[in-house]
Design brief:
Layout: E1 5-9, E2 15-19, H1 20-23, H2 27-34, H3 39-43, E3 45-47, H4 53-69, H5 86-96
Parallel strand pairs: 1-3
Antiparallel strand pairs: 1-2
Helix pairs in contact: 4-5
């Protein structure tokens, strides 16, 4: 049985322990965890050598935001990203398919 948590590791080797259901907001992470072809999925650890700690942290915050507001019937607050990080976060989010 797989753990309810996964480790997402940034380029700087910072480890984020995230609930599996939250990490699976990302199509790419969901595929990696489900596929036997990805060694990382079996260990419940996925390294992202091209994603900085700051960008990965912000994307994980977006995973939580998306789950929280997914079925909301009230106006959804804007998810903001600092302008100086926008391109890096957008690139990471695009790569992670979220």
């Amino acid at each position: 049985m797989s753990s309810p948590f996964v480790k997402l590791i940034s380029a700087e080797k910072h480890v984020f322990v995230v609930e599996r259901r939250v990490a699976c907001v990302s199509g790419a992470i969901r595929t990696m965890l489900a596929s036997s072809g990805f060694q990382e999925g079996g260990k419940g650890e996925i390294e992202f050598p091209e994603i900085s700690t700051q960008a990965l942290e912000r994307v994980i915050e977006y995973f939580h935001y998306k789950i929280k507001w997914h079925s909301s019937r009230v106006p959804i607050p804007e998810f903001t990203v600092e302008p100086e990080m926008a391109l890096e976060v957008l690139t990471a989010a695009n790569y992670l398919d979220c």
